[in-house]
Design goal:
- With about 450 residues, the chain is an alpha/beta fold.
- It is built from 16 helices and 15 strands.
- The strands form five sheets. A three-stranded mixed beta sheet has the order 2-1-15.
- Strand 12 and strand 13 form a beta hairpin.
- Helix 2 runs antiparallel to helix 15, helix 4 crosses helix 5 and helix 15 packs antiparallel against helix 16.
Length: about 450
Amino acid sequence: MSREVNFDGLVGPTHNYSGLALGNVASMTHGGLVANPKEAALQGLAKMKALRDAGYAQGVLPPQQRPDLGMLRALGFSGSDAQVLARAAGEAPQILRAVCSASSMWTANAATLTPSVDAPDSRVHFTPANLQSSFHRFLEPATTARILASIFRDETRFAHHPALPASPAFADEGAANHTRLCADYGEPGVHLFVYGRQAFVWSDEAGVAPARYPARQTLEASQAVARQHGLVERQTVFAQQHPDAIDAGVFHNDVIAVGNGPVLLYHEMAFLDEQATLDELRKKMSAPLVPIRVPVEAVSLEDAVASYLFNSQLLSNPDGSMTLVVPGECQERESVWRTIQDHLLAGHNPIGEVVVKDVKQSMRNGGGPACLRLRVVLSNAERSALSGRVLLDDALHDELAAWVERHYRDRLAPVDLADPQLAMETLTALDELTGILAIGAVYPFQL
């Protein structure tokens, strides 16, 4: 039996609001505010435990090593750790903020996955996202690759590919722009790759493009990942994201659409050519597509971005129904909450329950419930082949919560990032965490 395991990212000890993400309205709006790393990590753990207690398979991925002192040294800052941090704070505060970002918590961007049932060699395939569109996230792929290779270690069951070249032509943001649609997790599926722009076209052939914010995913990157995983034309659909949505703050497709099983919940402005996208999905899927369209008259793009309605987790239940896990901000927007009650819950679709979760610390930086998890479809044998202690149970949850209480601060402002004591606290915490998760040496300071 195959099940989907949601691997949530643990929020790191340097969680802060630096406003680094151009095009991410929440991140830009809250830049400079004081963050609470301890509360952020505990909110994430609470969501994981609640879903695990409800019967969903739940995994954990560790945060990255921050601050990235190695990158600061590579950029010419020299001296002791304290001197490097002080120089960076004085000469290039934006660079310091970038190398302290806890953005790896949003593991939807960690990689793109293909389940073994869809792969020609019957292995689960992983490609870490290069995240080259923003410097603070470009720092992640090497460590992400080590973490994934440590957990999914069995080479007879798991295949790991290198991240795509870190070039604007192959800008790849991972599973945040990828949705797999299928009748059941263990049955063959169709992979919907959503891109914002094409790289290898002349300007007069480029078509419609966003004018305000950059399109982070290229068609060429999506096609390359599909080739790496052995996916063929009948298994893939490539759709362009609507540029107006990108300009409204929809920096990833998972801010405007979410799929699960045969269901695609999406906003009217999700795709540039909505009808062609649906038609191709219907043609290639073995099961009937169940589209749930939310029109702009019901929920504006502004409300969709502010509430993160579509950045929700859509989860399958044993009885065939689905549960939608939404952030608390959905209750704060009248049009969104009314749409949930009148259109989603009362509609002719599998969504039978809506669960509200508080992930406000993450939301202020522009990441909702769907951003916080990497979806991995695994058979029983593949789950048994996992290395480490990464599948959540009560004991692991309690250990991780206690670990957060010991090591995390409850107040962190951007000015605090230059504190060398924070760097030491983080290394101590991460060294202990790799022991708790039993994943071995994955961080640069451990190698």
